[in-house]
């Protein structure tokens, strides 16, 4: 069943033109500061990690430096793991969880793995608490070869320049009530399509790469996160956000086909976390802690089960 949902920009059934995109952009005030919330914490880590700027974004009067952190010079004898946060800027614990991991737990992996951490892929979206970037584009559907989405192109360039193959990539996200109240209606308005309502799951879940599923890896993360916050149940149709539940707290998407951030490496072990910050049973502190537990559990499992790492295919 589909239904028309009023969205204050555009004409129902008609895709947006540049005029509507500009109208949408004008309706997105800055609500928090990347320069205040994120950059000082990154700079404070410079004494413990190699901090570099891997790109910059220039949107109107706003400019943002994009930061990557490494736990030292890459050691070719060690596997490499990528942690990304803030691909969707409004998903706060993705950014804060990545920072908290660096501040509290990353040192545990010194000499065991080459860590590459990007704490906020989409700072314009972070400041507006929005899923989209300046151009009303979802970065997490545009990680594709030849992309013209700056957030995606910069991250893909960073990954391509990393020596050696990746063992693991974990991309930190949230599913929020605003997905149904704002972002999916906005998507349908932008694309001129009908809105089909869905149910926001109450709890944490994972999105495995359907093109290379690793069920034991996913369950190791679920078991660790469950100590911090609750796991989302399936709905009455056995689904989470419209996708069949393949194991407790796990659904699958074909990451590369969907243009998701989880497709930027050829790592054997990949996942996208989804924390639910609007639950009455979860606090912001629990959400951040859940992201940290997910990263650590993923690293622990991947390192214990690394076997032979295949040659990189980019």
Automatic annotation (TrEMBL):
GO MF, one term, reads: metallocarboxypeptidase activity
Family, per the entry?
Belongs to the peptidase M14 family.
Q: Which Pfam families match?
A: DUF2817 (PF10994)
The highest taxon in the source lineage is Bacteria
Q: Which residues form the Peptidase M14 domain?
A: 30-314
User: What protein name applies here?
Assistant: Peptidase
Q: Which CDD domains match?
A: M14_REP34-like (cd06231)
Cite the PROSITE patterns for this sequence: PEPTIDASE_M14 (PS52035)
Specify the species: Croceicoccus mobilis
Q: Which Gene3D superfamilies does the protein's record reference?
A: Zn peptidases
InterPro entries under this entry? DUF2817 (IPR021259), Peptidase_M14 (IPR000834)
């Amino acid at each position: 069943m589909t239904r028309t949902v009023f969205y204050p920009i555009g004409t129902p059934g008609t895709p947006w033109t540049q005029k509507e995109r500009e109208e949408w952009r004008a309706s997105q005030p800055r609500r928090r500061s990347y320069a205040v919330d994120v950059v000082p914490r990154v700079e404070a880590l410079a004494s413990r990690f190699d901090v570099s700027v891997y790109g910059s974004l220039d949107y109107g009067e706003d400019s943002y430096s994009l930061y990557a952190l490494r736990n030292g010079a890459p050691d070719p004898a060690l596997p490499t793991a990528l942690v990304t946060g803030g691909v969707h800027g409004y998903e706060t614990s993705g950014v804060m969880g990545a920072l908290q991991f660096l501040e509290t737990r990353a040192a545990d992996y010194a000499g065991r793995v080459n860590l590459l951490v990007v704490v906020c892929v989409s700072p314009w979206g972070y400041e507006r608490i929005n899923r989209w970037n300046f151009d009303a584009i979802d970065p997490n559907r545009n990680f594709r070869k030849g992309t013209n989405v700056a957030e995606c192109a910069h991250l893909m360039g960073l990954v391509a320049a990393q020596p050696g193959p990746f063992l693991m990539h974990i991309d930190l996200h949230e599913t929020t009530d605003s997905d149904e109240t704002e972002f999916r209606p906005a998507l349908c308005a932008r694309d001129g399509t009908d809105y089909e309502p869905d149910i926001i799951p109450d709890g944490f879940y994972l999105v495995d790469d359907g093109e290379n599923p690793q069920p034991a890896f996913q369950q190791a993360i679920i078991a660790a996160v469950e100590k911090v916050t609750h796991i989302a149940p399936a709905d009455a149709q056995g689904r989470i956000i419209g996708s069949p539940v393949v194991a407790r707290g796990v659904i699958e998407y074909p990451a590369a086909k969907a243009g998701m951030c989880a497709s930027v490496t050829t790592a054997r072990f990949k996942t996208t976390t989804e924390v639910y910050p609007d639950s009455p049973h979860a606090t912001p502190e629990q959400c951040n802690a859940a992201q940290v537990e997910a990263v650590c559990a993923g690293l622990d499992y991947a390192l214990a089960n690394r076997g032979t790492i295949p040659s990189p295919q980019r």
